[in-house]
Amino acid sequence: MSASISDTAASTMPASILLILIVSMTITACAGKPDRPGFAGNGAGRMPPERIDAIRETMLARFDADGDGAMTCADVTTARSELFVKLDTNGDDSLSPKEYGAVSFEDRSFRFFEWNTVDSDRSGSISLAEFKAVPASRFSNIDTDDNCIVTTEEIVAFAREQMAGGNPTGGQRPGGPGGRRPRNVGV
To answer: Residues annotated as region Disordered (predicted)?
Structure first.
């Protein structure tokens, strides 16, 4: 019986090196297929229509406050007003520091805005107008053309960016925490 090359390689090569070689070849073979469905690398792949629909429905559930099938700045304002009422546990039409403390769990945009920044009139409480003035960075990051309407194309681009590990530049968008310079959509 003659031994094949693979039998010879397997008998002379430690198992760990053989495993690394096989894994490396598999990764290399898979990496060169940017046209496979759902591939998120560099935006080159095509996202299946059913995946686009699922992402759009998820986004609508989050941002479409009036249920009209579109995501707009008006929806953000409505959602902010509803959140304010929910947080105002004592019903005095303002938020105390304690009430405001829970906001970042409800809306991540507020993570970057401390009490002193939002209480712009230094009254010791936050009014609805002050609350709505906080930029909705998540919405602004999706609405890339700044027209206050999120389109399906913008949702797909945002989803691809997220699937690729966030921002294509590898860090935050210009404008610091929360992404690119957020537009004030709450007033």
So the answer is: 163-187
**CA–CA distance, 75 with 79 (Å, rounded to integer):** 6
Structural domain count, the chain: 1
* Residue 138 domain boundaries: 49-163
Examine residue 63 and state whether it is found in any structural domain, yes or no.
Answer: yes
What SS3 state is found at 126? strand
pLDDT digits (tens, 9 = 90+) for 94-135: 999 999 998 988 888 888 899 999 999 999 999 999 999 988
Whole-structure pTM value: 0.58
CATH of residue 71: 1.10.238
In a domain, 44, yes or no: no
